[in-house]
Amino acid sequence: MKWDFKGSKKDTEHPFLNLYVLQYEVTKDDGSIRPDFPYFLASRNKKKEDLRIVKQDFKRADAVLVGAYMIKDDQLYLLLEHQFRPALNHDVVSFPAGLCDKEDKDIVASALRELREETGYTATDFEMIVPPSPTSEGLSDECNAVVICRLLEKGEDAKEEFEDLSAKLYSVKEVQEMLKDETILFSNSARILVLYLLEKFKNR
Questions:
Q1: Cβ atoms of 198 and 104 closer than 8 Å
Q2: Where along the chain do the CATH 3.90.79.10 domains lie?
Q3: pTM to 2 decimals?
Q4: Percentage of the chain with pLDDT > 90?
């Protein structure tokens, strides 16, 4: 099939997330044409001209997930957060994460800022393991990055007023028990990142 983008319409006016209706002309393999195929998109972009469907800027990250770990007494600890997520009406376990600000010079700067704001920790040895990539391409044009880093000292956090989260260092044994507990809800990306870090440091 051939998909030709014809335009978009913004359906909502919210400060952080909006719904757009996209219009495509779709030519099927048999040659028949659907001139007005609609598709619905959720986006953090405030203007339709900034949608990725228009700009095709897939190297820009909307947000970053920070796989923060600590090596203490030759043992691995992961910094995980329990955070209430209103969209689910449930606590979710994840790593520190947040939106990339335009003022951040790069993804590492965004990761370090979010880590400090949410947990108070500073870190080093940053490594990007996932470049900006689509996270839910059937629903949104959001592209997020994933980095890992080694924790250093802890200071004071600077959480926003309604960031209902608590961060804690967990041992490998504790993390493995959490993964087995069906009452604990991990985000999809956090579960994969946990497994990655456990494998990366499995000999510790």
A1: no
A2: 63-200
A3: 0.92
A4: 91
Residue 102 φ then ψ, to 5°: -60, -25
CATH number at 63-200: 3.90.79.10
* Lookup: tokens for 180: 């087995």
**HEC-encoded secondary structure of the chain:** CEEEEEEEEECCCCCCCEEEEEEEEEECCCCCEEEEEEEEEEECCCCHHHCHHHHCCCCCCCEEEEEEEEEECCEEEEEEEEEEECCCCEEEEECCEEECCCCCCCHHHHHHHHHHHHHCEEEEEEEEEEEEEECCCCCECCEEEEEEEEEEEECCCCCCCCCCEEEEEEEHHHHHHHHHCCCCCECHHHHHHHHHHHHHCCCC
